[in-house]
Amino acid sequence: MAEASAVLRFVRMTPRKMRMVIDLIRGREVSEALTLLKYLHRAASPVVEKLLHSAVANAGQKELGDSDSLRIVRAYVDGGPVLKRFRARSMGRANPILKRTSHVTIVVASTGSS
Question: What is the spatial distance between Cα 107 and Cα 3, in angstroms, rounded to a whole number?
Fold first, then answer.
C-alpha cells in the first residue's frame, strides 16, 4: 500500500494537548477528519488541519488519488525539546517553567483496492 506523510516539527504546543486532537482523527477518512478539525475548539486544531492538508497534497504528488479516497493510517505526536525558563518567587527562590514542544506526524494512504 502506497503512503504519503507530512511531518511538523518543533510546534510550540505541549504533546499532551496535541495528542487530544490527533487521537480524534486517527483512522478516519480525510474528508471526515477535516470536517471534525474545522469545528473542534482546540488550539491544536488549525495546526493539525494544516498538516493534514499538507499530507493530502503530498499524496497528490505521489498520485495516490484524490482526498476522498484517502484515510489517515497513522498519526502520532512525539515530544520535542523543552525550553526551560524560571519564574522568580518570594525570598529569592525560583520555580521552573517548562515550555514543551511537539513533533507531529500524519500518514495517509489510499483506501481503494490496488
Answer: 7
Cα separations in angstroms, 46 against 21, 72, 85, 92, 104:
10, 17, 27, 41, 13
The Cα 58–Cα 81 span in angstroms is 27
For 44-86, what is each residue's pLDDT tens digit? 999 999 999 999 999 999 988 888 899 999 999 999 999 999 9
Cβ-in-10-Å burial (0-12, 13-18, 19+) of 86 comes to exposed
Q: Which CATH number fits domain 3-110: 3.90.105.10, 3.30.413.10, 1.20.58.340, 3.90.470.10?
A: 3.90.470.10
